[in-house]
Amino acid sequence: MKITEAKFVKSSPRLEECPNTNLPEYVFLGRSNVGKSSLINMLVERNKLSKTSSIPGKTQLINHFIINKKLFFVDLPGYGWAKTSKSNRESWDNMTKKYLLNSDKLVLIFILIDIRIKPQEIDIKYLNFIGKNNLPVNIIFTKADKIKKSQIDKRINEFTSSLSKYWSSIPNYFISSSLNKTGRNEILKYIFEINENLNK
Ligand code: GDP
């Protein structure tokens, strides 16, 4: 699968201000610092399309990128940043949830999970919110280069068993590393296949 064109379209502070087109949206969501910007840049093979390490605490925006003139990648604000006020956190949370519930072009949510760390309550909470609302979701485990290969399955099992307390079947998942492009072909192939079949 080839990305022939990836362009930044707009940063929107609210759902109402998001670009108004009929293209399908593939959404990336995760805790701040999970590697979301790096993953988007890795997928589109551009170093700075999505800004990495943006300063948390600043206004959080919904970023739209148009891919091959066919679909959008949507970068949602990272959640769970500890060093901000409760009201800031709540407003990001509300904006994200409102977007997820009301975007009528949303095709698939990718929730990003840092493969190195133990299952986090906030990730499970977001996944359960998505599940309860019957929204389509896949998981992307990030930063796989940072742990030994032998640890990868162990970490994934740990996460999926925490999830299985709430989920009867575990969502499809990918393993990625933005550093060495692990998962790139699989994720893009999956997205493009879904997208090609949307209008059939
Ligand atoms: P975001 O806040 O979720 O957008 O996270 P960023 O993409 O800004 O990444 C946070 C930090 O993790 C940065 O220092 C990145 O260089 C680093 N990082 C992100 N993805 C990877 C990865 O796959 N491997 C490694 N080794 N570092 C990563």
Can you describe what's shown?
By secondary structure, this protein is an alpha/beta fold. The chain has one domain (6-15, 22-198): Rossmann fold (3-Layer(aba) Sandwich). The protein is 34% helix and 21% strand. It has helices at residues 36-44, 86-102, 121-132, 149-163, 184-197; strands spanning 6-12, 25-30, 62-67, 71-75, 106-114, 137-142, 173-175. A seven-stranded mixed sheet has the order 1-3-4-2-5-6-7, with helices on both faces.
Bound molecules: guanosine-5'-diphosphate
Helix fraction, binned, reads 25-40%
Low-confidence stretches: none
> How would the global form be characterised?
globular
The CATH topology is: Rossmann fold
Total strands: the figure is: 7
How far apart the termini lie comes to 19 Å
Question: What is the N-to-C order of secondary-structure elements (H for helix, E for strand)?
Answer: EEHEEHEHEHEH
Count the DSSP helices: 5
**Biggest sheet statistics:** 7 strands, mixed
Gross CATH architecture = 3-Layer(aba) Sandwich
The tally of structural domains comes to 1
Major sheet: order of its strands? 1-3-4-2-5-6-7
Structural class: alpha/beta
Could you state the CATH homologous superfamily? Answer: P-loop containing nucleotide triphosphate hydrolases
Strand content: 15-25%
What gyration radius follows from the Cα positions, in whole Å? 16 Å
CATH class: Alpha Beta
The pLDDT mean sits at 90
